[in-house]
Each structure stands twice: as C-alpha cells, then as structure tokens.
Design a protein that fits this description.
3 domains, alpha+beta, 12 strands
C-alpha cells in the first residue's frame, strides 16, 4: 500500500465534508478504495490519533473539523441522524435534550437524550460525550418535528410529546425537574396538539398529573382544560403525584391527584 492511497482517503473525506456531511460508514470507504480491511482500519487509526476523525460506533465514524478539534469529537446533533440511519433505527431527540431545543433555558444537559424504536442501541459514554438511549415500542409520528442543523435535519419530539415522555420517565427525572421544564415549555405548547398526543398515548395517570401541574403550578388554563376534558369523559381515578412515594397525602379533588410529594420547581 502506498502513501498515495492514504492521501486519497483524506481527500475523499474532504469531499464528504464539502457536501455537508460530517460522518461516514466504514463500508463506504471499502467500496470506494480497493484496499484491504486491515490497511483501511490502520489508516483510520492514524487519522484518529491526529484527531481528524472519531469512531462513534463500530463501523461508523465522524469527521472532526478544526473548530471541534479540541473537543475530539462532534456534538451529537451533527451525527445522530446519520448514525441512526446507519443502525436502521427510528429515533427522535427527546427528553431534556428536546426541552433545551424548545427553549427550556434551565435545561442544558451534558447528556444527549435519544428515544429509539425498541430495542435501543447501547449508550455512548466516554470522556468526550454521553448519549443515552431510551426505547419505545411505538414512535408517535404526530409528535415528531424536524429541526435544522449544520449537518442537515434531525428528528425531535414536539413540546407536547416531550412533556409526556418526561412524565413517562418520572422515576428518572423527578417531579420537581419535570415541573420546572413544564414551566418553560408551556409557552410553546398548543392545546390542540397536546390533546392529540394525550389521546394517542392514552395514559390516564400521566394526563391527570400533567393537567394538575399545568393548572395548579404553571397556571396554564387552556392546556389544562384540554386535558381535563379528556379525563372528564371517562372518569377520574386517584393517582399519586409521585409513583415512587407512598400513596399518602392531600387529595386534589378536581384532578384526583394524591399530593404525596411537595413540588419545588427550580424557577
């Protein structure tokens, strides 16, 4: 193998970047160049050492432009769409990461959160980045929007779906943090969209929890009324505000929420 072959590889990666791409699969280079697997992997190792590329998954790499050389990798939003297509997985950016993208200023998580069609890929955790995957049996298309990035577009949960996803993972994030996010997200939530997502999700307990928080803590009447109308038709059942605590506490008669944990938002 000659050094010219190596130069061709770097030139090819420059061509990829010129097209607006930040990532590539190993198979693409194997198809492009008549080189052995071992020779190609060895060259890619040298490029990794020079911090020109980084390996995110086995067989999947990102190209590191100068502005990210100190980081030694790329922000996940620049490669997540390409990587999930490479893995053939439906996905969307969700939870705290989606909250931040929708303007929840207090949510700038160091971990990048991704919802994936079950089974979820393995988490990515190293000194350079943390990407955490949550799995879902069904991806709700009505709750997914697209946002532009320098690398193209990524799928992100709408504010309404983000709110319900957070409550689905209340054990992970806690009622106080979720309430804080709702106090920032409600301004970009629409009653009609919240109603649609609530009907699809059909989780009475979380609809009651969200309605209670939106009305009594956030003070948002239109959103809470939309949720109340859903439950009012089918009937309320007593629900603990926090599923981690004992079902003991004052009962909110309207929402039938047992206030078994005080809500103390960060705002």
């Amino acid at each position: 193998m000659t050094n010219n072959k190596y130069e061709y590889i770097e030139t090819y990666l420059d061509t990829i970047r010129a097209k607006g791409r930040y990532s590539f699969p190993l198979e693409e280079l194997l198809n492009e160049f008549q080189v052995s697997y071992q020779a190609l992997v060895q060259r890619l190792y040298h490029l990794k050492q020079k911090k020109k590329i980084a390996q995110i998954r086995q067989g999947f790499y990102v190209i590191i432009p100068p502005e990210y050389s100190a980081l030694g990798t790329l922000p996940p939003d620049l490669f997540i769409d390409a990587m999930m297509k490479y893995l053939d997985k439906e996905y969307y950016v969700g939870l705290l990461s989606a909250s931040a993208l929708h303007g929840a200023a207090h949510q700038q998580p160091t971990t990048f959160f991704v919802m994936s069609k079950y089974p979820a890929p393995r988490n990515i955790s190293n000194k350079k980045m943390k990407v955490r995957f949550f799995s879902k049996q069904n991806i709700i298309a009505e709750g997914i929007i697209q946002k532009k990035t320098p690398a193209g577009r990524i799928y992100v949960s709408s504010p309404e779906l983000t709110a319900f996803d957070l409550l689905d993972n209340i054990n992970q994030f806690g009622i106080n943090r979720i309430t804080t996010i709702l106090m920032e997200l409600y301004e970009v939530m629409l009653p009609s969209k919240l109603l649609k997502i609530a009907k699809i999700i059909d989780n009475k307990a979380n609809i009651q929890r969200m309605g209670f928080i939106l009305e009594t803590i956030v003070g948002e009447e239109k959103l809470s009324t939309a949720l109340y109308d859903i439950i009012h038709k089918t009937g309320f059942t007593k629900v603990a505000l926090s599923p981690l605590k004992k079902k003991a506490g004052e009962l909110n008669e309207k929402w039938k929420i047992i206030i078994n944990e005080p809500i103390e938002p960060d705002l």
